[in-house]
Amino acid sequence: MTVDIKSRTRDVDVVGRLHSIESFGTVDGPGTRLVVFCQGCPMRCQYCHNPDTWEFARADGTGPGTSMTVGEVLERYERNRPFYKSGGITVTGGEPMAQPDFVAALFRAAHEAPAGRIHTCLDTSAAMFSAEHAERFSALLDATDMVLLDIKTSDPALHETLCGMPASHALELGDELARRGIPTLIRHVVVPGLTDSEEECAAVGRIIGNWDNVVGLDFLPYHTMGKVKYDKLDIKYPLKGVKAMDAARAKELRTIALRARAQRRAERGR
Ligand code: SF4
User: Fold this and answer.
1) Which family does it belong to (predicted)?
2) pLDDT confidence of 105, banded at 50, 70, 90?
């Protein structure tokens, strides 16, 4: 008992660097959720809507974002607890896995909340993860009920161009989540001329056909609404001139991906 109390005390005092908090999110995990946006992301996705979350705070605590403790985040949740009945807390970014100790402490404390266990969801691009250093994220994944995992593209070369980082991180995290059996929803942004070929979408389907823990697949049509933030921050918008993705076509491509997934599962005897 003494150990539990001590560890809870430590968890609520752990500090994270946050961009913002949304009180009633409905698109980042099941139900209505408190959505916590972390500050800092090492990727540079060309279609990113949140370039204002990219920059990491400096070691001396200056720079973008606001420091908050786990306890302060949970207070925000408790203020509106009745509204989160079938929801919980989602941590997104930026990149939440860049602050694994903070998110692990938040999720542990959420599970142990005196007023009742809170469902925890991690929304990640996996940029920080590698199989070689999986133990760095072990405590975080131990306390994670669900993951929203981005598969940006199946094509390793395109991945580097599109996001500025290798594809291997997401694939290795996908393997780890499958090994652990953590329910995972895959997200894939469909960008005209980049990630909208039938071959690409089938390849995404084959990748996720290797993971038996996948509980859903979202194909998100690229839209241009993020451009205004780039203008505001005076950053060049990399997808200038690319039109928004047709939502109906994105739906068809998702069906192709699901078919390829089913084929892959059948090959594996699932
Ligand atoms: S991983 Fe997410 S936050 Fe980071 S650049 Fe890509 S879309 Fe933006």
Assistant:
1) Belongs to the organic radical-activating enzymes family.
2) very high
Distance separating alpha carbons of residues 47 and 67, to the nearest angstrom: 27
31 within domain boundaries? yes
Distance 121 CA to ligand 1 centre (A): 17
Count of positions (residues) in the chain: 270
- Inside any domain, residue 112: yes
Is the model's pTM score more than 0.90? yes
**Ligand 1 midpoint to CA 113 (Å):** 30
Which of 28, 48, 92 to mutate to test ligand 1, by most ligand atoms within 8 A of the CB atom? 48
Q: Which domain holds residue 77?
A: 2-192+214-244
Q: Quick one: tokens of 207?
A: 């990748």
Q: Which residues line ligand 1 (CB under 6 A)?
A: 41, 43-45, 48, 50, 53, 93-95, 125
Residue 204 lies inside a defined structural domain of this protein: no
Determine contact, residues 217/188, Cβ cutoff 8 Å. Answer: yes
User: Is 115 part of a structural domain of the chain?
Assistant: yes
| Tens of pLDDT, residues 190-211 | 999 999 999 999 999 999 999 9
Helix (H, G, I), strand (E, B) or coil at 98: helix
